[in-house]
């Protein structure tokens, strides 16, 4: 009994820390695992066994394959087709959500959304439709798509592996499809018919222009011959103010430099284009002898050149920028990148940018060398909002990755190879054929998810070994006492869904699966309907932006607040639970 209280306390503490979001979830899970090991709840030989688990290897392989398919332009080919949709908002909604759902059944939800969000924004801008009406249904569509196949989402891979450990036979790659496809179709139909009224129309991003009206924050400063700052560098000028003072361009005669190098020295008659508030501008003028030059209206032409561009991007859920500011990272001095704007939930956060600590879903406006910007986005885990040029080469380049992927699916579905082996082999072939360069191999793996799975799998085993899973299962059965057995399955589905909206959905699957197995054993029933209930509940966290990466990615561009998600997410969750329960009982009978 003591072991049950200890493991229960550790898991409750872990869940509280995950909800508070003060530390990243992989660190929290690892600390929980080590605490359980110190207390003797996890045997020494099993502490790090999770990292060798087949489910962890499969998740890593699927992420590599997803990155290879993304890089080869397979999804871009579908995105390019979207240009033919027209300006009808309903048709845009149907097409975008359908493509997102189908792609998410086979590749990473996040990778799909990274491509489809810019497509949706461009369609909305060209047609004058509000993008907030498109982005949330797309995010939810990606979650529905993930439930269709075993490789669509990490919880399905975990549940399949748990079944193999329990009964000796894993779920097949398409065993999830009857239920997953059913809830996907029901969910899409629901959103097509009702999301127009349930998704709030947001005004954070204009229908016709970028989120930021940058020109309203730019000022021209003229360097007169009498200025004491002639001969000094731009670096020294920027350091004259403790507040935000960013030099975004330098005009010298017929020459113009966007995002000029900080070592350039000022000359007489130079014109500086700076971003700063009025008080800071006045402070710099008083201290340097520069003059305000308001002869012409300033516009975005000063921000770009042949090499310099301005790009918007979303701070990802695992971005290295989270909790840090531009000043901390020294984006300007280390990378030559200017932060021109930051928006949160669709609202610009003002002009004092250097000390703003970034959060998941923030939208950034960055200026710098185009190639450097792409590297910075990839390095720090951000997703560009501008639709990039399609990476579609010849049909041969598309056929090779598609051929490898389809062959993998067929081999796994026919049982010729186990899913972990098939997908690991496919990942290797993607690298060997240079579809995915070797240098991008490890960057394509979401390492926090891998660490989370490796840490929580032994905790799930400890929950079962201590008897805590049986105790929780019996408590759930008491709640459903006297009711038909399917009520217990429905309760398990509902609790898992609620938990997946609070913590990472992979962790929810690991923690709830042992409870589901204990409930099945109490009934003397098959574990399959209970495991399927956990899989569906973990796959569809619609209620909060923190429930899944896809929800976070649309928060900034859509201008959504935290409370906007449940307006569509709550009725959609109830519908999914009802449809899933019927399909589970039909496809996976209790006895």
TrEMBL record:
GO terms for biological process: potassium ion transport. InterPro entries: Cit_transptr-like_dom, DASS-Related_Transporters, RCK_C, RCK_C_sf. It is found in: Membrane. It comes from the Bacteria. PROSITE patterns: RCK_C (PS51202). Keywords: Membrane, Repeat, Transmembrane, Transmembrane helix, Transport. It is a multi-pass membrane protein. GO terms for cellular component: plasma membrane. GO terms for molecular function: monoatomic cation transmembrane transporter activity. Residues 206-290, 295-383 form the RCK C-terminal domain. Signal peptide: none annotated. SUPFAM superfamilies: TrkA C-terminal domain-like. The chain crosses the membrane at residues 5-21, 27-44, 51-70, 90-123, 135-159, 179-199, 398-425, 475-499, 530-548, 568-588. Gene3D superfamilies: Regulator of K+ conductance, C-terminal domain. The keyword Ubl conjugation does not apply. This is SLC13 family permease. It comes from Idiomarina aquatica.
